[in-house]
Design brief:
globular; 14 strands; binds NADP nicotinamide-adenine-dinucleotide phosphate; alpha/beta; 22% strand; 30% helix; Rossmann fold; 12 helices; six-stranded parallel sheet; 350 residues; Dihydrodipicolinate Reductase, domain 2
């Protein structure tokens, strides 16, 4: 018998679900035990119905699996959730009630006061919310969320500066890849040769989630960080990778040299650095004047590194910079796998 922890993927046929299949196929601690999707897909062979969009071959073992409905009782002690947000609420709670740890990509539970909204490098202490969550609901499992894809890159990319200098104001404008909208997502006639200056709900998510992740754990829960955040979100004709331009205000003047030194010195806490999915450099500074670029830089750290460049003074706030992250890895499946690794490291899942 395998010593690996059996896991399930809810929404395994979708954009993020496929990324889970790819990332978990050779994972040292986890083994895909089941794949779940909607009632239309249930009962069919995964390999027959998935429109495989990954650049690596579909693993044969997973291709041969029969897709199940997303209902408790299917094999897996951890459920990686990548289902539609409007149905995720009840489905994820049902798994948690049944003793499964749900590691979710969906927005549904992210802002619940008792759900950790986690970036392991930034706020691993927020996992402390789980105990109260389990007590409140009487669950033996639990729900842990990773942030929205554009928030994940933003928060990790500026985390070295928040930690070193304390951010008071943050302005961000995004250029987000079409894969962020799932499959088939944005129609090609809307996306090609075009920029769409609206992504429903995204700006609110970036503003709220940033304050929660940078918040402080207290006996009453997470006290949100007092950071003023203004987000503008745009869809651009790029397949993968969210590029974001950011201006930051601090309590004092921070020079570009100080900021670059803080980014270059930034490392994950030892417990997090030891996780399989944590890259050697969670945030990497690139001094070249035309970097980072979506096509050239998203695969750094196996898609888990956020690249920061163009750190320079800002005439309105203090500093401005450009950052790039992989939206379906650091912003979705890779983030969730890393969160699950932290649950295992803490002894919550065995
Ligand atoms: P997607 O490509 O549209 O895939 C949706 C998945 O949900 C499919 O596997 C679908 O299965 C399944 N599903 C639909 N209705 C279901 C039901 N009633 N019961 C069980 N499964 C059901 O979407 P996606 O981009 O992968 O996104 C999935 C979730 O992750 C969303 O909540 C999204 O907001 C979030 N997210 C996405 C990204 C990204 O970059 N794409 C980043 C962060 C978070 P069928 O094939 O059977 O229909």
């Amino acid at each position: 018998m395998s010593a690996k922890i059996p896991v399930t993927i809810l929404g395994a046929t979708g954009t993020v679900g496929q990324k889970f299949v790819r990332l978990l196929a050779d994972h040292p601690q986890f083994e895909i035990a089941s794949v779940a999707a909607s009632a239309q897909s249930a009962g069919k062979r995964y390999g027959d119905i998935v429109r495989w969009r990954e650049g690596t071959p579909l693993p044969e073992r997973v291709a041969a699996m029969t897709v199940t409905r997303a209902e408790p009782g299917i094999p897996g002690r951890i459920a990686f959730s990548a289902i539609e947000a409007d149905i995720a609420g009840e489905v994820e709670q049902a798994f948690a009630r049944a003793g499964v740890y749900v590691v979710t990509n969906t927005k549904t539970h992210r802002m619940d006061p008792d759900v950790p909204l986690l970036i392991p490098e930034v706020n691993p202490d927020h996992l402390g919310l789980l105990e109260g969550q389990q007590r409140k609901h009487g669950w033996t499992g639990g729900i842990v969320a990773n942030p929205n894809c554009s928030t994940a890159g933003l928060v990790l990319g500026v985390a070295p500066l928040e930690r070193a200098f304390g951010i008071e104001k943050l302005f961000v404008a995004t250029m987000q890849a079409v894969s962020g909208a799932g499959y088939p997502g944005v129609a090609s006639l809307d996306a090609l040769g075009n920029v769409i200056p609206h992504i429903g709900g995204e700006e609110e998510k970036m503003e709220q989630e940033t304050r929660k992740i940078f918040g402080t754990m207290s006996p009453g829960g997470v006290r949100e960080a007092a950071i003023g955040v203004s987000a503008h979100t745009n869809r651009v004709p790029v397949i993968d990778g969210h590029l974001e331009v950011v201006s930051l205000g601090f309590g004092r003047r921070v020079s570009p040299e100080e900021a670059i030194a803080a980014i270059q010195a930034y490392r994950a806490p030892a417990e997090v650095a030891a996780l399989h999915s944590t890259p050697a450099l969670p945030v990497e500074y690139d001094a070249r004047p035309d970097r980072p670029q979506s096509r050239l830089d998203i695969e750094r750290g196996n898609g888990m590194t956020v690249t920061v460049g163009r750190v320079r003074p800002c005439p309105l706030l203090d500093l401005r910079l450009v950052l790039l992250s992989h939206n379906t890895i650091r912003g979705a499946a890779g983030a969730a796998v890393q969160n699950a690794e932290l649950l295992v490291a803490r002894g919550l899942v065995r």
